[in-house]
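Inputs:
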Amino acid sequence: MMKVTASQIRQDFNNFGGFGQQGYGYNVEYLYNEIAKILGLDKTYNLIIVGAGHLGQALANYVNFERRGFIVKGIFDKNPELYGKELRGIAVQPVGNIERFVRENDIDVAVLTIPKDGVARTVEILVRCNIKAIWNFAHVDLNVPESIVVENVHLSDSLMKLSYGIANQ
Amino acid sequence: MMKVTASQIRQDFNNFGGFGQQGYGYNVEYLYNEIAKILGLDKTYNLIIVGAGHLGQALANYVNFERRGFIVKGIFDKNPELYGKELRGIAVQPVGNIERFVRENDIDVAVLTIPKDGVARTVEILVRCNIKAIWNFAHVDLNVPESIVVENVHLSDSLMKLSYGIANQ
DNA sequence: TATATTTTGTTATTTTTTTGGCAGATTGTA
DNA sequence: TACAATCTGCCAAAAAAATAACAAAATATA
């Protein structure tokens, strides 16, 4: 189903340890929980969304956040018309509040869903208040210290992969 | 800047041919266009968006589609309240219209931004009317013939990668 | 003009990843 | 109880990818 060989799955697992029992198999529930621990899904993290456009709103309503241990604490935008608008019970705030909010609410992760012109300044602020990680949906690569975890979602790249797929059957 | 060695870039290019001139270098504009051709970005494709929720709306307003040769021709949703609502000048239609629309308008690509319960039925319809490719934002893997190009954007996976990154510095 | 420098294409080497094979451990069956 | 059958962990082999090295071709410099 996953288009992966049994051998590869065993090798991959064994990079983190042995989770099964020879001759018997894997206990699926135990394995699932162990993988969750490896991925850090047993911990919870506080999160803010920067950019309350369509994508930001889609993510704010993204149910899986909680399931993965990410708790949406704040939403920010530079558009005054959105101030106070509630998404899942959380009011949109001005981006000027980010620095104080992150420091006071122990925020770990920022989701970036803003146009690229605002990215550099926003990232600077996030770095200054010691954010741990950035989930980056902006179409630029971020310039941050090594210690900050960045996970990019570059939809442009994905679209170009699709295009290549069509062009080559 | 890209954290890739010069050697690797040369190797990668040479999988598709030689684009430079020894001793002189690469003509950047020529190289850019050649890569665009390889990726199929010189052609245009007709596209529909299935699911006009926040994510669908975000993508409908996604400016880069046109730049990459993808033209949004139709938007569909099952929620009657959205019927007729215009996004970038295109009215949302009932999902029941998909089959006829795809056949009549020579649609190449479908963007799936619907909850997972509706996916199987929708994919069946898309396969039946010979869609070429699916850009899949739904949180399930699709069951389609080999000949159909599928590009998955699994945000859950990305979020778990982020989690792993934080858990391991 | 001769020589040094730069830069790509290509081949060789090294490293990494994937696959294959088998021993050890457990369950099922005659 | 003996013998298959099944399934994981681990090691070996094969394949793939990344890196290194160098020749060929162009420019820059003395």
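The first strand of chain B starts at residue 20 and ends at 21. Flag for discussion at group meeting.
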